[in-house]
Amino acid sequence: MSIHSLPGEPRPGPYRSVAVAPGPHLRPYVLGWAGFRAEAGGTEPPTRMLPLNAATLIVDFAGGDPIVTGPRSAVTLSSRALWRHGVAVGLTPAGMSALLGTPMREVAGTTVPLADLLGAARAEELTGRLMEPSSWPARFGVLERWLAAALRPAAVAAGSDGLVMHAWHRLQQPAAWPREPDGRPRGPGGRLTVEALAGELGVSRRYLELGFRRLVGLTPKTVARVARFQRAVQALSHPSATLAGAVACGYADQPHLTREVRTMAGMTPKQLFAFVQDTARLAH
């Protein structure tokens, strides 16, 4: 799963999380889910929501209503801590339609109460069922069963475009990029360009642009840019991370990385490195 958010400033106490990948039957719809908990005490820092290509369903056990955050191309800063203890689920464009009955474009760049999508009764029921178990494995079992029961694949078939869905997934997967004979990813700065992806799929760039706006709410170029940023965030979260490793995620050079991180996260790469290292160090 991508990194959804970071604290706006260093946390006063440990933050623990555990992530799980979905089984094959849920994989077209769900990127994964994670349980999280911040230790109580002191003043909780504000939240920095990072650019993201997926929608995220968040169920907060600490009193907040369950919500869905949409894909976004820029950082969003809140003046307070938004979540302290609960579960987050990453949803693909197909997952938004099949599980919540709403195209992803309708939540792009915004946050929507889950009750507005599922109805208050179903949203409250999900929160209650997830709060009952005392362990993360038991909670995740409840969540997986709920997701499987909520699936409505017909909702995807009615309004989807298989090529666009495939293109969205391709842009998230650097291992699937075309390669030069020496093994380097093909494209400027090691990037899979929208033109190259359209040619690979046998459609025009305009076809992908219209399809992405209709299904995702972001252009394919923006999705590629956000995916590259998230790969850099993931690279920086490893204990042995270096800025050179982040540059290798598809940036032309370190100044290019610096410009993009400043624009998309509101901080320098070194500051981002410090935040994700601290979060990764405290995660369990």
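The record above closes out task 2.4. Task 2.5 opens with a second protein, given below.
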Amino acid sequence: MTPPIEYVCETGSTNADLLSRLRAGEALDEGHWLVADRQTAGRGRQGRAWLDGPGNFMGSTVVRLSDRDPPASSLSFVAALAVYETVLPGLADPFALMLKWPNDVLLEGAKFCGLLLEAERGHVVIGIGVNLAAAPQVTDRAVRALSQSGPAPSRDAFAQALARQFATELQRWRDYGSETILRRWKAAAHPPGTRLRVHDADGQPVQGTYDGLGDDGALRLRLADGTTHIMHAGDVMLEDK
């Protein structure tokens, strides 16, 4: 069964809309999705703009938190796995898809999906943007569209499949905890020893190799001197070998 999906032709940001409705006291059901044909003020992590495009997916959903839930911070891994599992069956080469900390999904090494999580009054609003039909021109990183790797699904078909998969992953998160989610995420991510460059919250670069995740989902970065640097937030780039 597909969760309810509300479609709008244009809005500033689907995340901002759901956050505003929650602040106003609207009782949004968990699993409610808001999907836009076009966003004029889409947002990504660290204040970046998320550029839209005809045929691409831009939508947000609501998770209602309870005291029995695993840590809310692990929902970023839930969302990344939902996108990964939705896209994977349609790819000729399943190894073209890879997860990158903290919440990126890469296609043939290039970014084609963005995630943004924001908390509000006991809820988390999760925004997801996926380049289905076209990728924008971005100067500081490689980007790609799903259509460049084979036939891409229609926006509406993708929205329905993602809504169902997200509901499945959310239930797994609640049933089995964040440890199982993190284990599955690591199996789909870049392998240990991958060279990374991480810009921390202050924008300072730190270079090292990927050494897995902590129990809380923090990045373990092995430095050249053999020590391990733990990072809870940052912008990660894969380094060329």
